[in-house]
Amino acid sequence: MLKMKKAVLFAILGNVIFGFSFLASKIALRTVDPVLLLAIRFTVAFVVLNVLLLLGAFKVRFKGKSLGVLIPMSICQPVIYFLCENYGLQYATSSFSGLMIAMIPAVTFLLATVILKEPFRMNKFAWALCSVAGVCVISVTGGGDGGVSVKGVLFLTGAVASGSLYAVLSRKCSDTFTAMERTYAMFAAGCVSFLAIAFTREGGNLVPACVQACKTPEFVGAVLYLAVVSSIVAFFSMNYAATYLPVTQTSSFANLATLVSIVAGVVFLGETFGAKEVVGAVLILCGVFMLNRADNKTAAA
């Protein structure tokens, strides 16, 4: 029971950190494009992880273990998810993107019943949809910033599918790999993949572009937050939570990130917080609280 309570705290921590990552990304994207940001972010994260590994802060052991589930998990998140999300935002309105990404907890709920054979309970699914509805209220009235193309729908569908599948696969391989081993594999995949994509786009200009970007103090601060806090700490927290909690429970916290991002925008960027944000926040918190209450009752039974 203590480990489960600790896992809930880690799930909340991870999603609160993710919420502030939207603010950091906005700051960093003033200097570089999304692909270069991803390359820098995951390279810094992987370098920091290896320094910590050499210092003995943690251990990883992949030898003798089957990588059959770990590799697809690492490709789903961060590689496919971040690429699909970034390109989806280019071809769809921010409000539509918010609606699509908000579906991840509900889709994860369904995938967990199919792949992990977790029991399907209609009341839990209804509370998951309540949290989704909260994001919908906030997003759907957010105003249009362009059209929604078929490309946008396809990319965002890919983001929802990969984000949901990651949560399920992380739980599935938690018996074989520790939370830190899963985190290490994810950032190895992210570093290699995003560097390769950035090099293909930038060619010989990749290093000069990175050096030029790092001359901006705001960019450096944002990248350090994204690489160390929002990557290493947050994803470790989520992988730890996935070790001890049902996927339906860990995914229920996902929309807290939306709520935190709104609060961060209000506090640090002077964005508005009106009636629709209040209604959306209530629905999100109600859905998360009631779904976890249902899970706690199940665990106690």
Automatic annotation (TrEMBL):
UniProt cross-references to SUPFAM superfamilies, sorted A to Z: Multidrug resistance efflux transporter EmrE
Residue ranges crossing the lipid bilayer per the database entry: 7-29, 35-55, 67-83, 95-116, 125-142, 148-169, 181-199, 219-241, 253-272
GO cellular component, one term: plasma membrane
Topology versus the membrane: Multi-pass membrane protein
Residue ranges of every copy of the EamA domain listed in the record: 6-139, 151-292
Compartments reported by the entry: Cell membrane
Gene3D superfamilies noted in UniProt: 1.10.3730.20
Organism taxonomic ancestry: Bacteria, Bacillati, Bacillota, Clostridia, Lachnospirales
Record-linked InterPro entries: AA-Vitamin_Transporters, EamA_dom, EmrE-like
Protein name per UniProt: EamA domain-containing protein
The keyword Coiled coil belongs to this UniProt entry's keyword annotation: no
Keyword Ribonucleoprotein: no
Key words of the record: Cell membrane, Membrane, Transmembrane, Transmembrane helix
